[in-house]
Amino acid sequence: MSLPRPRRELLLPLLLFVAVALLVAACSPSGIGPVGSGGVAATASPHPPLTPAQPGADPVSLLAWVFNPIFQILYIFLVWLQKLTGDVGIAIILMTLVVRAALIPLFRRQIVSTKRMQLIQPEIKELQKRYKGDRSKFSQAQMELYKERGVNPASGCLPLLLQLPLLMIIYSVISQGLTNPDPRAMFTFFGLHLLDYTCVNGIGAVGATIDQYKPCINPTVTWLGNLDVSKPWVLFPNIAFLSWFSVLAAASAVLQLVQSRMTMPPSTTAFSDQNSKVQRQLVMFLPLISLAYGGFLPAGLFIYWIVTTIFGIVQQYLIVGWGSTFPLFGFSPSFARDHRPRFPVDEPKASTGGAPGAARKPGIVRPPTDRTPADRSASAAATVRPRERGRQGRRGRKR
Fold it and tell me: Cα(312)–Cα(374) distance, rounded to whole angstroms?
């Protein structure tokens, strides 16, 4: 039995929440215990040294071991940038820019796939009308349409699946790597010692006084008012009902809302339905979760989140423009009117397998490269052949 479409749309955030919870369990300090079950050596010290995770029998230890190489690479890179710049906040920003620059092709594929899916929505609506009540035939016709237009819906899911583990690894790097007094074991990667670092607490320095309660790496960002990026930063810690509010979390939520609105189709299109309304509600709701996270997630994670969101906004602006960001509260600025992206997405061509010049299937009309929503609405009916009115059943069939 298949779930109704709106319920399946609401099921996706629930699955994402479960995945985040599982990854948090794998990366959190409570899930990392003695060597062989998590990644920190069992010692009598109140702050045991941070060591690479070892595989264990439980799923949490196994996940920690699987993601450990990525953790080490990002952690070594972050510490090297901090050593180079002398500021952990600048190091987080530079690390985020490098990671997002490496993922530009992957996220570009996601943005293009999402935009092309929006462009063929008129044809999908016609298929829904044509095969109303017959879900199997609609699914088959929909897959044929995707193949004909050269659209792959699955290509937009991979960046999302990648972003969740990456976010949790960054969380682990900041929450553990910037609070541990002795992370020197993490600087050796598969037997290669990649980084020499003298801790600010004296560990590793000859003749220095060692403070095992002080982090090895200075987590303070002076240009943010001496902010400790390894801890949550709330604006009103002494006010009970506002003790969760973080300025960084609020800024992250606003930027996520802008990024999400840029990817949504305009609400004035003739093809807005219940599914589109559900998606728009999710776009408004999901960024608000960041506000709740501000009370217990480290501030450094929100610096990463803000920078990666700004990077994504710029990338989307170059490909899809402002999208449905405007009008905002009924106002549309002049720079957003008739704006054309720098690298616009061409409408999917009606060719076999997406190859240029291939023969077209009957019943599907090749669309022009640049069409208005009214033009797409007028030509959407050509996606499928009309019903044959001559057949009225086995007994009343016309001869």
Answer: 30
d(CA 95, CA 77): 7
What 3-state DSSP class applies to 81? Answer: helix
pLDDT tens track, the chain, 399 positions = 444 443 444 344 444 444 444 444 444 433 333 333 334 333 344 578 999 988 887 888 888 899 999 999 999 999 999 999 999 999 999 999 999 999 999 899 888 888 888 888 888 888 988 898 888 999 999 999 988 888 887 776 777 778 888 988 999 999 999 999 999 999 999 999 999 998 998 887 777 778 888 999 999 999 999 999 999 988 877 777 777 889 999 999 999 989 988 887 765 554 455 666 676 777 777 788 888 888 889 999 999 999 999 999 999 999 988 888 887 777 888 888 888 888 888 877 664 444 333 334 433 333 444 455 555 555 555 555 554 444 444 444 444
**pTM for the full model?**
0.75
Peptide bond into 327 cis (omega under 30): yes
| Residue 90, token pair as written in the block | 């600048």
Q: CA 186, CA 369: separation in Å to the nearest integer? A: 53
Query: Could you give the CA distance from residue 80 to residue 186 in angstroms, rounded to a whole number?
Result: 12
CA–CA gap between residue 25 and residue 279 (Å, rounded)? 29
Residue ranges covered by each domain of the chain: 11-203+217-327
* Residues 6+ away with beta carbon under 8 Å from 237: 243
Q: Which of the 8 DSSP states describes residue 268?
A: T
Q: List C-alpha distances in Å: 386 to 108, 363, 378, 390.
A: 37, 9, 15, 12
